[in-house]
C-alpha cells in the first residue's frame, strides 16, 4: 500500500517536531516546511532515508506555502494530511502593541494557516481524494492570558478559519480541525517562562508551583501529548470529526 504523506509546517522543533516523529511512527512520509532549513534538514536526518524531507518555507508567504505543497507532491506523489503548525508568540499589552508586531503575528499565525488550508484543499480536490487539514490554535484561542492579546486574537481567528473550511470543503471529503495546546514545555514556552520569572522576580520552580494549580492534572504538557491528538486527527479514526477545536491542556479551559 502506498505510504500516506503529511506536511508539517514548523516541524523541526517543539510541538512540530513531536508531530513529525509521531506521524512517522504512524506510517506517514512527512515533509517539513520550515524557515530555518538547516535546522529542518538536521532533524530530518534522524529518520530513515526517504521518510522525512525538509523544505524551506515561510508560511507568511502565500506563494511559498503553495510551492511547499507542489514540491511535496512532486517528491512523494501525493498529499493526505496538512498540519498547519507553524506559529509565533509575542508578549505585549494592548497599549504596547505596534502595527508592525500585530502584522507579523497575523502574517504567521492566521495568514499562514489560511495559505496552508488553501494549498492543501486545492491539492486534495485535484487528487480527487479525501484529505485532512489540521491547524494549530491554542487555549489562547478560548481565553486571553495577560500580555497575549495579539497572540490570542490570531488563535481565535484560527478557530474561525477551521470552522469555515470544514463547512466549505466537507463535500469533498476533506475534514478540517484544530488543536488547542495549553501550557506545553517547548523552546518557545521556555522563553515565555523565563520572561515571566524575570517580570515577577521569582524562580521557574516557584512559577510552576503557582501555575501548576491551574492545571487539573498538575503538570505542564509535553509536546508528545499534543502530537498524540494530532495523530488521531490524521488517522481514519477521525474521519467523521470535522470543524472541531480540541483543547489539550490537562484541565484548564473546559469546553
SSE inventory with pairings:
Elements: E1 5-9, H1 14-25, E2 29-34, H2 37-44, E3 52-56, H3 62-76, E4 81-84, H4 99-127, E5 131-136, H5 149-169, E6 174-181, H6 187-200, H7 204-212, H8 223-234, E7 245-248
Parallel strand pairs: 1-2, 1-4, 2-3, 4-5, 5-6, 6-7
- How would you sum up the major sheet? 7 strands, parallel
Strand order of the largest sheet: 3-2-1-4-5-6-7
State the share of residues found in helices, binned by percent: 40-55%
> Could you give the distance between the termini?
39 Å
Which fold name fills CATH's third level, the topology?
A: Rossmann fold
Mean pLDDT: 93
Task: Give the tags.
alpha/beta, 255 residues, 47% helix, 8 helices, Rossmann fold, globular, single chain, 7-stranded parallel sheet
Describe the structure.
The protein is of the alpha/beta class and 255 residues long. It has a single domain (5-186, 222-248), classed as Rossmann fold (3-Layer(aba) Sandwich). It is 47% helix and 15% strand. It has eight helices and seven strands, in the order βαβαβαβαβαβαααβ. The protein has helices at residues 14-25, 37-44, 62-76, 99-127, 149-169, 187-200, 204-212, 223-234; strands spanning 5-9, 29-34, 52-56, 81-84, 131-136, 174-181, 245-248. Helix 4 links the parallel strand 4 and strand 5. Helix 4 (99-127) runs parallel beside helix 5. The protein is globular, with a radius of gyration of 18 Å. It starts with a strand and ends in a 7-residue tail after the last strand.
Amino acid at each position: 500500500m502506498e505510504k500516506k504523506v503529511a506536511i508539517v509546517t514548523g516541524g523541526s522543533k517543539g510541538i512540530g517536531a513531536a508531530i513529525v516523529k509521531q506521524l512517522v511512527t504512524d506510517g506517514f512520509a512527512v515533509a517539513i516546511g520550515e524557515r530555518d532549513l538547516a535546522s529542518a534538514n538536521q532533524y530530518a536526518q534522524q529518520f530513515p532515508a526517504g521518510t522525512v524531507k525538509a523544505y524551506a518555507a515561510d508560511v507568511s508567504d502565500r506563494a511559498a506555502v503553495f510551492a511547499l505543497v507542489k514540491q511535496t507532491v512532486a517528491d512523494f506523489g501525493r498529499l493526505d494530511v496538512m498540519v498547519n503548525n507553524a506559529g509565533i508568540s509575542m508578549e505585549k499589552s494592548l497599549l504596547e502593541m505596534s502595527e508592525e508586531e500585530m502584522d507579523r503575528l497575523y502574517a504567521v499565525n492566521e495568514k499562514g494557516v489560511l495559505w496552508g488550508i488553501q494549498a492543501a484543499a486545492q491539492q486534495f480536490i485535484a487528487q480527487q481524494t479525501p484529505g485532512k487539514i489540521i491547524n494549530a490554535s491554542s487555549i489562547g484561542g478560548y481565553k486571553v492570558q495577560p500580555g497575549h492579546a495579539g497572540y490570542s486574537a490570531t488563535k481565535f481567528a484560527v478557530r474561525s478559519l477551521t470552522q469555515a473550511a470544514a463547512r466549505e470543503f466537507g463535500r469533498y471529503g476533506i475534514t478540517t480541525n484544530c488543536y488547542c495546546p495549553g501550557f506545553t514545555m517547548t523552546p518557545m514556552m521556555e522563553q515565555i517562562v523565563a520572561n515571566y520569572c524575570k517580570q515577577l522576580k521569582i524562580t521557574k520552580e516557584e512559577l510552576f508551583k503557582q501555575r501548576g494549580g491551574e492545571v487539573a492534572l498538575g503538570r505542564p504538557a509535553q509536546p508528545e501529548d499534543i502530537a498524540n491528538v494530532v495523530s488521531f486527527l490524521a488517522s481514519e479514526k477521525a474521519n467523521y470529526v470535522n470543524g472541531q477545536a480540541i483543547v489539550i491542556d490537562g484541565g484548564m479551559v473546559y469546553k
